[in-house]
Amino acid sequence: MTYPLAGRPVPRIGYGLRRLASRTAELGETAAIGVLHHAYDLGIRHFDTAEFYDAGLANHLLHAAFQGRRDEVILATKAGARPITGGPAPMTAAQQPHELREAVEANLKSLGTEYLDVVNLRRMDFRPGLLASGDQSVPLEDQLAELTALRDEGKIRAIGLSHVRQNQFEAALPAGITCVQNLYYLLDRSDEPLLTACREAEVAWVPYFPLGDGGPPFNLPKVVDDPVVLAVAADLGVTATQVGLAWQLNHSPNTMLIAGSADPEHLAENLAAADLDLDSATMTRLEAVRS
């Protein structure tokens, strides 16, 4: 089960580094790197990261885990924010074109690579999350011009978008977009029209928080607590997590997941969702759910 990303067919279940980075102090660096090796051994090839995940720790772990076999994995990172300490959030806006270039250079350095497979432009035009203001309110076309230049220089291979509206996606399409990362899951399908537009344009849809929650400031209702999801899981003899992820994969063929976990058993649980084929009656039952 694959879908094209950055010009390559990639397994539709990938791995997000956010949670692993936040738990590395507890696990220890060697164990955290071991989790990434285990993910690779299970068949995961798409790893989603950001320089602002624990102030570069996520990228450090990826570099340590995959140096020597860089071309075997897809590394997707983000630009548009930079890490800070001591504030209400661990990052702040860095939306200006020169800051996007600086973010790409920082990711190249911390990942120890000559190129980035995907750079997702993280916009900050609406909540939840940070809002750009003042000189950080930058036109999308200026940002795309800088990312296109970086792609032409060979520093990035593909451009993605994160936290965008449908009109922004449509405006960006001529630049060549490989994926969109937006908040979307069973209990919040506000971006269904954008998902449809991505599917029609053959652009990968990479929902963040695919099971809800996400911690502050999101604190989304959890799919695994929904009574319908729990009932379906019991009927099928699987976990609620698997039902929530399988719904995403069955709902649209261009969906690629980046559910992260620091637990090897949870990793295997996540991957097993790819083999869960939900029939039309079950999909109808699930899609009647609303938060």
TrEMBL record:
GO MF, one annotated term: oxidoreductase activity
Highest taxon listed in the record's lineage: Bacteria
InterPro entries noted in UniProt: AKR (IPR020471), AKR_Detox_Biosynth (IPR050523), NAD(P)_OxRdtase_dom_sf (IPR036812), NADP_OxRdtase_dom (IPR023210)
NADP-dependent oxidoreductase domain span: 12-289
Keyword Ribosomal protein: no
Gene3D superfamilies from the UniProt entry: NADP-dependent oxidoreductase domain (3.20.20.100)
UniProt keyword list: Oxidoreductase
Name the UniProt record assigns to this protein: Oxidoreductase
Species whose genome carries this gene: Actinoplanes friuliensis DSM 7358
Lineage: Bacteria, Bacillati, Actinomycetota, Actinomycetes, Micromonosporales
